[in-house]
Model the fold of this input.
Amino acid sequence: MAEGKARFGTPLKIPGWVNYALVPLVNLFAALLISGIVILIVGDNPLKALEVLLYGAFGYPEAIGYTLYYTTNFIFTGLAVAIAFHCGLFNIGAEGQAALGGIGTAIVCLYLDWLPSWAIIPIAMIAAALFGAAWAYIPAYLQAKRGSHIVITTIMFNFIAASVLTYLLVEVLINPAGQSPESRPFIEATWLPFFHDFLSMPETPLNISFLYALVLSGGFYFFVWHTRWGYEIRVVGQNETAARYAGISPSRNIILAMMISGALAGFVGINEIQGVQQRLIIDFTNEYGFVGIAVALMGRNHPVGIFLAALLFGALYQGGSELAFEMKTINKEMVIVIQGLIILFSGALEHMFRPRIEAAYRRVATWRTVEAG
Amino acid sequence: MSEQNPALELRHVNKSFGPVHANKDISLSVNRSSIHGIVGENGAGKSTLMSIVYGFYQADSGEILINGVPCQIDNPQSSIEAGIGMVHQHFMLVDTFTVLENIILGIEGGACLSKGLAAAREELIRLEKEYSLEVNVDAIVGDLPVGLRQRVEILKALYREAEILILDEPTGVLTPQEADHLFRILDTLRKQGKTVILITHKLREIMAITDNVSVMRRGEMVAHAKTSETTRDALAEMMVGRSVLLRVAKSPAKPGETLLSLRDLTYVDADNVPRLKKIDLDLKAGEILGIAGVSGNGQSELLEILGGMRTPTSGSIRYKGRELVGSKAFSARNLRKIGIGHVPEDRHRAGLVLSFSANECTILGYHDNPEYNRGLRLDRDAMVRNCETYIEKYDIRPPDAYLLASDFSGGNQQKLVLAREMEQSPDVLLVGQPTRGVDIGAIEFIHKQLIQMRDAGKAILVVSVEIDEVMSIADRIAVMFDGEIVGEVSAEEATETRLGLMMAGVRESTTPEMA
Done:
């Protein structure tokens, strides 16, 4: 009983695998179950649908390429939302920040394309980060110094960003040779290398920005948990009074976290504009910024979780379009319903199963210690 | 129902949470029309026991008898029906509702409010008269001071026809005056035939008001006694399981040079309310200066200004002869660097980040120090190492540098904060409410540490609303009232009455005319 005595009054610790693996999997399973029922109602076979979805996402090399290409965007926006979360901020504006990142990249690729490849690629990346960060700076400043709520301002800034993008494409950057609102194609020296350029795989949009996203995930982990700046951001996010007590400026950290967030979201522009489209087009952000919120929630603001959640949503995007194509009763809207259910269960209903699973774990663990004793 | 049956009786109650046996074979008998105290350190199982009585938890085994009749209490509803009312430590009130609306919450009496409200108003006014519990029934609860909110909670229980009233740490949030007022209310309740169970860890309260007392330790009931037949020291010993010093022994102070000196320090807050009015204070090396006063008289502001969390409106603060106000050194970060440590009044709100592990909390405010940084990297090994040293030196339990700050008990959390600030060996240490919500064993330890630091030639400023505490550890006592220092006495000359008068705003020079 020596151990029991030392622990008197302290709750039993729930191990990481329950929190980070079991609970999300149960949530995911519940979402798939409801989706299955919905598919059953519209008159199709849910198991068949699941099979098509999985095959469409991972079944053959091309599918994997597409899935990972979508995953890349979700990693960027997931990390962006997560860093703001760590500072206690709800950044709804990743969508707009991504749009600005794309504009930054495009300007470099259009006007500095006389530079050699090895220079233009990093410069375009920096431009994406700077534009995204600058766009996030304005709501961050308003929150930190004026108390305007960041949720409201970032939502508004999404609309402004979309309008800015449209304006630029219609009035300024439009390709004089074309009719549609898009810029002229970038010259080949500015393109990011595709995976199929150096691996024997079919042509897919997957490019080296996927590797860049993985590197950033590592950097994110290091920054948040292993530097004093990450520490400061977390203190501000958890307890602003403690931050002031410790001499940590909440407003400085709010601005810093939001600018990092904006920069991360801006990298969507690298993948989409420089990597895939190779010209600036309208609406390229395609809701990646919004889905990033679900990715961060589901990934519990940790880069490993964010990678897994991003992969899931990448698979849903890719497998979902395959599903809409393959099965008659399931159209694009139906796929969105399934995605919505997954967001609902893993994001909004996060706490539905958790207490029960934790209680069940406690019961099992107690029973085991009794057995052992 | 015979007269000699106790109002409430527990027989062999057991409750476990997983491997934790929170209540072990508890038996308890509470007489009608009496005030029964239950004491024990934090985590001794007092609150669990009362939650069983109130129906929040079900006992694993054992019996509850009310007026000698066995009762099945499955939920708070059945406990209310059995005549039990509970006043929680943290009030269960809707701040934006009026007193009346709060009291009828849950028993509105129909979909249309107006009828229920009218009936409730009459009944409440009768109750207020009967128990002299004056509260304006139309006041918004959020506007009421804490003492009155507690009265609303008591009224709520009485309105539900409670015969047995359980109060969980009721004085934790009250000033001494408010606490005294509460005791008068409890006394009235007792005279009117109600039974009161008072859960607390403050022995002063037990001695002041209760008829009988039961002591809990580590989930067990270790003693029952008549209050008149026991003493504070005996109770303390039973609570902790060993003899404790309620008043620490200390040698006379040997004050050295003046380290911190305040002149005309004034602070006007954002709502243009003056909080500090021309404060003059000197703090010398090798002494403990105690600031006494009822809470809310400017002590918090004074502490926060000296800790760099607020900027004074005017006046001067000199530290080692150097003016701080208006200088670059005047920020929470830089004051730490020049040797002013700060243990804040509220460890949950300011001193700790509860969701962080203990080792992350040990660098709060010092995360810039070279000892914790290696280039870009935060030196996690150094954090854990230092934290483990603190844990050993300050006997922090459980000894786990990775445990979340929120999972430590109040006393251990406070030791964590104290360790962090003391181990940086500042020349001046500011301490707010050193032992608020801390159990007896830890109080003794904390006081000893402060005195040791004083003997090492450091200057210590202690702000506390516990008059006993200030008298026990301070060498010099200044009393604050309404943003001013109304008087200063040496510890030898201080008596409870003298300090009490000053705390009420009576200046010593004017006392003759005040009669």
Q: What stands out?
A: The two ends of chain B are 53 Å apart (CA to CA). Chain B has two domains: 8-240, 258-351+426-514. The longest strand of chain B covers residues 20-30.
